[in-house]
UniProtKB/TrEMBL annotation:
This is 2-dehydro-3-deoxy-D-gluconate 5-dehydrogenase KduD. PROSITE patterns: ADH_SHORT. It comes from the Bacteria. One of its GO terms (molecular function) is 2-dehydro-3-deoxy-D-gluconate 5-dehydrogenase activity.
Length: 251
């Protein structure tokens, strides 16, 4: 059997794809042949234009993923405008920073709700169709803080560790139905999320010294891993958290 990364004939749903890693993933999935729906709260015009330039279909679904409330709407829209969802990429995420002793309940809930609760229930809703059809791929965007505690980001570390747990739990239960569930743990990637770190000369130098590859990751580095995990080349990969970190965790 030929190994294939081709996604022709597949439909993908990517959350938080108006910018950064999500945008690069949506474009890469389209370049690999998939039609793509993007779900998020901000204007995704740039992403939709990029997808359209590949000749694939691009669909925008307006949704605030800070709660589970829009999930039924997202699935209904994706199915009615695109068809079945074969690939789900849970990328939308936020981070809140504060000292442990000052950390607020609001910052705890906001990060857990967006990064973990919505991820699980959107996956659950999408997986129902996948299980019926006997195939599907779910790719969750985790973090190095899936494995490490970080500093001043307890809710983010908890949520991203939780992404690993949910990935493995879903992978176990859905494997017999032909659905693979994996996660990607990005290292330091140049997006809006990390703009402050990139422009802080001292922190930037400390980060670069710690990365064996000697450079920040690009959103495209994560997109390549997402295409692999979404493709039939990864049919025997499930329940895995793939670090794409320039060797950070190897050090
Ligand atoms: P961005 O801030 O560029 O992207 C985050 C995306 O999530 C945006 O599209 C944002 O939309 C969306 N989002 C956040 N909250 C909501 C919400 N309530 N409803 C809908 N969409 C929402 O950052 P990145 O591209 O860096 O982050 C993407 C993912 O990668 C996140 O899960 C992040 O935790 C993870 N990650 C990033 C790393 C990095 O170094 N950059 C490292 C490790 C993990 P909006 O524009 O509307 O806010």
């Amino acid at each position: 059997m030929a190994i294939s990364f081709d996604l022709t004939g597949k439909n993908a749903l990517v959350t938080g794809a108006n910018t950064g890693i999500g945008q690069a993933i949506a474009l890469a999935l389209a370049q690999a042949g998939a039609d793509v729906a993007v779900a998020g709260r901000s204007d995704p015009t740039e992403t939709l234009d990029q997808i359209s330039e590949t000749g694939r279909r691009a669909v925008s679904i307006k949704a605030d993923l800070s709660s589970v409330e829009p999930i039924d709407h997202i699935i209904e829209e994706a199915v009615s405008r695109l068809g079945q969802v074969d690939i789900l990429v849970n990328n939308a995420g936020i981070i809140r920073r504060s000292d442990i002793l000052e950390f607020s309940e609001e910052d705890w809930d906001a990060v857990l709700d967006t990064n973990l609760k919505t991820l699980f229930f959107l996956s659950q809703a999408t997986a129902k169709g996948m299980v019926e059809r006997g195939s599907g791929k779910i790719v969750n965007i985790a973090s190095l803080l899936t494995f490490q505690g970080g500093i001043r980001v307890p809710s983010y570390a908890a949520a991203k560790s939780g992404v690993s747990g949910v990935t493995k739990a879903m992978a176990n239960e859905l494997a017999p139905s032909g659905v693979q569930v994996n996660a990607i743990a990005p290292g330091y990637i140049t997006t809006n999320n990390t703009a402050a770190l990139q422009s802080d000369d001292i922190r930037n130098r400390q980060i670069l010294e710690r990365i064996p590859t000697g450079r920040w990751g690009k959103p495209e580095d994560i997109a390549g891993a997402a295409v692999f995990l979404a493709s039939s080349a990864a049919d025997y990969v499930t329940g895995h958290v793939l670090a794409v970190d320039g060797g950070w965790l190897a050090r």
